[in-house]
Amino acid sequence: MATPSDEMNTKLTWRRFEDGENKWDSFTDKIFNEDTSHKCPTYVHKTPPCQGSCPSGEDIRGWLAVVRGQEKPVGDMAMGEYAFRRSTEANPFPSMMGRVCPAPCQDGCNRNEVEDFVGINAVEQWIGDNALSNGYKFEVGPTSGKKVAIIGGGPAGMAAAYQLRRKGHASTVFESQAELGGMMRYGIPNYRIPRDKLAGEIQRILDMGDIDVRTNTRVGKDVTVEELEKDFDAILWAVGCWTGRGLPVAGWENTPNCVSGVAFLKAFNEGRMKVTASKVVCVGGGDTSIDVVSVARRLGHIEQTNPTDRPELVVNDGFVAHDTAVTAAAQGAEVTLTSLFPKSNMTAAEHEVHDALHEGVTILDEVMPVEVILGDDGRATGLKIAQCQMVDGRPTPVEGTEQVLEADLIVSAIGQGGDLGGLEVLDNGRGLINADSFYQVPDREKHFVAGDIIRPHLLTTAIGQASVASDSIDEYLQHKEHKKRPKVDVHHFDLDKKLEEAGLAPDHFDAIERGDMRGTSSGNWAVHNYEDRSFAEVIPHDELFLGHFAYTPRIARKEEVPSADDVLGHFHERLIGLDETQAAEEAKRCMSCGMCFECDNCVIFCPQDAVYRVNKKEATTGRYVATDYARCIGCHICSDVCPTGYIKMGLGE
Q1: For position 1, what pLDDT does the model report?
Q2: Same domain for 427 and 405?
C-alpha cells in the first residue's frame, strides 16, 4: 500500500540505516584499513520488485528507462516506438493493462519507501495509446509450418497467439462468443476499456498474419477434442471462466431475479441490458462487484409496466434485449454493495472503491448474506444480511445483528468458475483444468492450458501464463526438453542482447586458439566485472541508497468520475491519460532498482579515481561505469552511495 498522502511531506522514510547506525565511519579508516577485505566492486543486475510483482513479468524498469530518455533507441526509432516494443515483449495489451490492471507492480514499488509509488500504469497507458495513434505494428518472420489450436479469444488466448507467432508458429483461435476479447470485452464496462482501443490492440495481433479466427464456435459442441488433436500440432486451452458462483444461502437457487455478476456484466457489455432494477444489492468486494454496482448506477431503472423489461430476463435469457428507447425514461437506481471485509481490505482497487462511493453506491462492509427473502410470486424482495466475524478462517454471522436490504435484483459477485460442458475429459472435478509447472495438462500430450480456467485471477495473470505456456509449446513442437523455469520468472533485461543491439557485442573467444588465459581482462572477449542475478533475486529497498531520492510527488492521471447526481447515463471514459511530457517526468521517478541509471555518484565519490565512465562509444545500459582494479582499494564508498543497489563489493570473494 502506498504511503498515506498526509504523511508524504512530513514523514520521509528513506533512512538507509537503523538507529545507532546513522553515522559514517571515518573515511581515513576506510581508505587505509578497508583494503584488507580484498573486495572490489562488481556490477550486479537484480530484478526490481515491480517486475517481480507483475504477473505478466514485464520489463517495467526497462521501458520506464526508455520513456524517461535514459535508454536510447537504436538508429532513428522514436522513443515511443522503442518503449512500445520493449513493453510488448511480455504483454501485447499496454493500452488495456495501463487502464484496468490493479497494478501489483505499484504495490511492490520500492519508491513507496520514499513517498509514493511510480505511476507505472499511467506510463504504460501512454505507451499503448501512443502506439495505437502512430499505427505501430508487430514485427514477425516466417512460420515454422506448425499450427496450434487456441481455445478462447480472451487475454490469455490472444496473448498466446501473439507469443506463438513471434516464435514462428501459426494458430487458429476458436472463440465461442461473437467477438474476440473475452473478459476484456464482456466483463469490463466500456468506460473503463474503450472499445476502439481494445479493437485496435486485438487487430494488431491479427495483423501479424497466420492467425486464423473462428468465432461463434464452441469446442466440445461445434468441434470435438478429437478433431483438434488430429488437425493441430498442439492445443492451448484458454477458455476462461464464464459461470458466476451463486450465494450459498437459502432462497438463492432458481430465484429469477438472483443473478451472477458475470452474467450481469455480459448482458450490459453485449448491449442487451439498457436499464436495471430500482433497488440493486450486490454481494462481493472485488473488482467485478465494483463494476456491477457502477454499471447499475449508470443504467438506472424504469417503472416496469411490462414484465418483459425486468433486467433478470435480459441477463438470464441471453437473447432478450431492452429497446434503446427505454433509456429515455430511466431514473436513478438505489445500489448497495456488501462485503465481508472492511473497505480498506476489500480486494477491489482502492481508487475503484473510492469512485463507487463518489458515484452514490452504498457500501456495507464486514457483513455477510444470510438468506434471500422471497415474495409470494417466487421473486426475491430482499437480502437478509448480518454483521460477521471470522471463526477458524470462516465468516460467521453475529447473532442479533440481522437486517433486510430491500432488493429488486440481487447480484452475486463472489467468484467465477469454468463451463466445461462437452469437455468433461479435461475437468478436474472443480470446473477447472489442471496444469503442471510448464502449463501443460498432466498426462495429455500436446495439451496446454493458461488463464482463468486454471484458477480465476487477474487479466495480467492470464497474459503471463500464456507467455510461459507459449514457451512450453515452442519447446514441445521442437521436441526439446522443457527448460527449468528461473526462480524469478519474468522478462529480464539482457545485457548481451543490448550490447548486440548497439553493435558492441564481445569478440568471439576460442580457448584453444587463445592459449594463455592470463591477462584476458584487458581483452574484449567477455563482459567483465558484471554479474546477472536477476533470474534468482529481487532487490529489496534496504539495498538501495534511498537518501539520494528527493521528495517528488507522483503525476497522477486525472479522472472524470461523475457525482451521485450526474452518474445516470454517464458512460464516458473515466481515466484521462498523461501526455508525453508528463509520462517522461513520471518515468523519471523510477529508482531503477538493481540497474545503473547513470547518476555518477560512484565516479564522483571514489577517493582513488578507480571508478570511471566507460567511453561513450562503448557504453550502453548496464555498462555506463567500470572500475580500474589497479587503483581500487576496496573502500566500498561507491557501493554506499549507489542509489540503485547495482554496485556490490563482491569481487575477490
Answers
A1: 40
A2: no
> At 488, which amino acid appears?
V
Please provide residue 530's backbone torsions phi and psi, each rounded to the nearest 5 degrees: -130, 135
pLDDT at 642 over 50: yes
Q: What does the pLDDT read at residue 25?
A: 61
Does the residue 290 lie in any domain? yes
User: Do 471 and 506 belong together in one domain?
Assistant: no
* Full residue range of the structural domain in which residue 441 is found: 147-242+418-477
Q: Are strands 279-284 and 409-412 parallel, antiparallel or unpaired?
A: parallel
Residue 582 cell numbers, joined? 508528463
- Residue 81 pLDDT more than 50? yes
For the chain, give the percent of residues with pLDDT over 90: 79
CA distance to 179, 596, 628, per residue, from 634 (Å): 62, 20, 11
Q: What is the pTM of this model?
A: 0.91
- Residue 321, exposed/middle/buried by CB under 10 A (0-12, 13-18, 19+)? middle
Q: Are residues 569 and 580 in the same domain?
A: yes
Per-residue pLDDT for 425 more than 60? yes
Compute the Cα dihedral for 96, 98, 100, 103 and give only its sign.
Answer: positive
Query: Going along 428-572, which residue ranges are E strands?
Result: 447-449, 530-532, 558-559
Residues 324-370 have pLDDT tens digits of: 767 777 889 999 999 999 998 999 988 899 999 999 999 999 999 99
How many distinct structural domains can be found in the chain? 3
E strands, 139-278, are 147-151, 170-174, 211-214, 234-237, 243-244, 258-260
Measured distance CA(572)–CA(194) in Å, rounded: 9
Q: Is residue 141 part of a domain?
A: no
Q: Which of 576, 565, 572, 591 is nearest to 645 (CA)?
A: 591
Picking from 388, 414, 440, the residue at the C-terminal end of a domain is 414
Same domain membership, residue 507 and residue 454? no
Query: What is the chain's alpha carbon radius of gyration, rounded to the nearest angstrom?
Result: 28
Closest to 236 in 3D by CA, of 176, 299, 159, 313: 159
Asked if residue 140 belongs to a domain, the reply is: no
The more confident residue out of 393 and 170 is 170
> What are the pLDDT digits (tens) for 99-147?
999 999 999 999 999 999 999 999 999 999 999 999 999 999 999 999 9
Same domain, 266 and 332: yes
Q: Are the beta carbons of 639 and 41 closer than 8 angstroms?
A: yes
Residue 318 belongs to a domain with what CATH number?
3.50.50.60
In this structure, what DSSP letter does residue 179 have? S
Instruction: Kindly indicate the confidence band of residue 629, based on its pLDDT and cuts at 50, 70 and 90.
Output: confident
508 and 595 fall within a common domain: yes
Note whether 69 and 215 are same-domain residues. no
The Cα–Cα gap between 547 and 114 comes to 9
Taking CA atoms, 201 is separated from 102, 127, 208, 210, in Å, by 19, 12, 12, 17
pLDDT digits 0-9 by tens, 463-490: 999 999 999 999 999 999 999 999 999 9
Task: Look at residue 484 and tell me if it is in a domain.
Answer: no
Whole-number Å distance between alpha carbons of 95 and 363: 30
646: its cell numbers: 547495482
Q: Which of 439, 358, 458 is nearest to 100 (CA)?
A: 458
Spell out the long-range contacts of 390-398 with Cβ–Cβ below 8 A and sequence spacing 24 or more. Answer: 395/340, 395/368, 397/368, 397/370
Residue 117: predicted pLDDT: 97
Q: Are 210 and 165 in contact (CB under 8 A)?
A: yes
Domain identity same for 514 and 458: no
